[in-house]
Design brief:
Blueprint: E1 12-14, E2 21-23, E3 32-34, E4 41-44, H1 49-69, E5 73-77, E6 80-84, H2 88-95, H3 99-129, H4 136-146, H5 152-167, E7 171-174, H6 176-194, H7 197-208, E8 221-223, E9 230-232, H8 258-278, E10 282-286, E11 289-293, H9 295-304, H10 308-337, H11 344-357, H12 363-374, E12 376-377, E13 381-385, H13 387-405, H14 409-414
Antiparallel strand pairs: 1-2, 3-4, 5-6, 5-7, 8-9, 10-11, 10-13, 12-13
Bound molecules: zinc ion (2 copies).
């Protein structure tokens, strides 16, 4: 027995990356259905998707409690020691007057992962028991929207960099929290792998009794950008009032003001990129002497210490990724403006990579939040965050929003690929 909900043969949905309308077709166990035109991933057939996601979400909740309730790391130097918990970095950023960074780290490392676990449980537990909880569509939509903002695995890499930086100068002990946190990352990744959003959306559609749309006049069909359901809208009704019957998202043919918003965000991020690299991101004060570190000087230090793999990792995450995102998004914007028909499929793939890779730039920010909370031995050693860290976090967050605002379907529209029955 499998709980996989085969999409009804007649159910239609629109590719969220190129806009092509598809008839859902059943796939074999483990197979992935992809867009025939741009290669975007649609859904995959998985056995017992909902039961497994339910079990793993319960496990995640227990691990989350362990990860937040105990000591994360202990730092020992010159007979003195200081410990932190997962939330210490947040408290320390707040104490040092960097409220925006405190909020950001709290959200992406603690609050959003928790919302994701609870939101998933809220939807899959009742579905497993055979009923539909109130607002299930909206809750599951938010679980999916928040997905790129749950950055625990990136945080863990920040922990690794912080650990390597400290381990030569002091004794570092790893606490129960850190181990629980590491297991939590694996279990949450397993939850994502087990949970097939399409299966959840199909169950939610059936439970509302919403009829699958029939192919009619294509102009009256709009694909929901949140759950991919194709909805029929009355031509007389203004689209701004239309809401997806399954997930409650507002319906747009394309993301609203996509080009203007993306361009504005790209420009803001490009400007912020300058202070992010010029100003120090943190200052290590040891026995009264302090040396401010910029992102680049932090990487040089890792190279001097012969930590090449780590230096390359930080260089890639902090320097290469933001620059590639800014150049890549600018290029995609220009390609839409000039109506380029060139390599549409590759440009769509490029967008997919830009969208997926941005969160990894947060490594340095997490490393700083860990260091300032851990290294607090007054005169012996202290680490203070610098203003460059706020600018850098701004670059990461703004470029993430920029890639979310960009609508890759506009590239296909601009090239004329979505005209005449396509
Ligand atoms: Zn497509
Ligand atoms: Zn929807």
């Amino acid at each position: 027995m499998s709980d996989y909900d085969a999409p009804a043969a007649y159910s239609l949905f629109a590719c969220h990356e190129c806009g092509l309308l598809h008839h859902a077709h059943p796939v074999n166990e483990g197979e992935v259905a992809r867009c025939s035109r741009c290669g975007a991933r649609f859904y995959r057939r998985r056995r017992n998707s909902i039961q497994r996601a339910l079990a793993l979400s319960f496990a995640s909740l227990v691990l989350f409690a362990l990860a937040n309730g105990f000591t994360f790391m202990t730092f020992k130097l010159e007979g003195r020691e200081s410990s932190n918990i997962l939330a210490s970095g947040v408290a320390e950023l707040y104490d040092q007057g960097l409220l925006p960074l405190a909020i950001l780290v709290a959200m992406v490392a603690i609050i959003i992962p928790l919302i994701k676990i609870l939101g998933t449980l809220y939807v899959v537990l009742p579905l497993h028991l055979g009923w539909r909880p109130p607002f299930a569509g909206a809750v599951f939509r938010w679980v999916e929207v928040l997905h790129p903002w749950a950055m625990m695995e990136v945080y863990m890499l920040g922990v690794l960099v912080a650990y390597v930086k400290l381990v030569d100068m002091a004794t570092i002990e790893l606490g129960i929290s850190l181990y629980s946190f590491a297991v939590l990352i694996v279990v949450m990744a397993a939850t994502d792998a087990a949970l097939e959003p399409h299966a959840v959306w199909e169950r939610l559609r059936k439970s509302t009794g919403a009829p699958p749309p029939a192919v009619a006049d294509r102009d009256s069909l709009v694909g929901c950008h949140a759950c991919d359901l194709v909805c029929r809208v009355r031509p007389s009704e203004p689209l701004s009032h239309a809401v997806c019957p399954r997930c409650g998202a507002h319906l747009h043919r394309r993301k609203a003001n996509s080009l203007t918003r993306t361009a504005a965000l790209v420009m803001t991020a490009a400007i912020l990129y300058i202070p992010a690299n010029v100003f120090p991101v943190m200052t290590v004060i040891s026995f009264g002497k302090g040396a401010p570190d910029t992102i680049l000087s932090g990487i040089k230090e890792l190279i001097h210490a012969d930590m090449w793999p780590l230096a390359l990792l930080v260089f890639f995450a902090s320097i290469t990724v933001p620059v590639l995102k800014l150049i890549g998004l600018s290029y995609l914007l220009i390609s839409v403006k000039i109506g380029s028909r060139w390599r549409l499929k590759d440009r769509t793939r490029m967008y997919r990579i830009i969208e997926g890779i941005g969160r990894w730039s947060m490594i340095d920010i997490f490393m700083i939040s860990i260091l300032i909370a851990l290294v607090k031995l007054d005169a012996i050693a202290t680490i203070e965050p610098g203003v460059g860290a706020i600018a850098f976090a701004g670059v990461v967050v703004i470029t993430m929003f920029a890639s979310i605002c960009f609508d890759p379907r506009l590239m296909w529209d601009a090239a004329g690929a979505n005209r005449d029955g396509h």
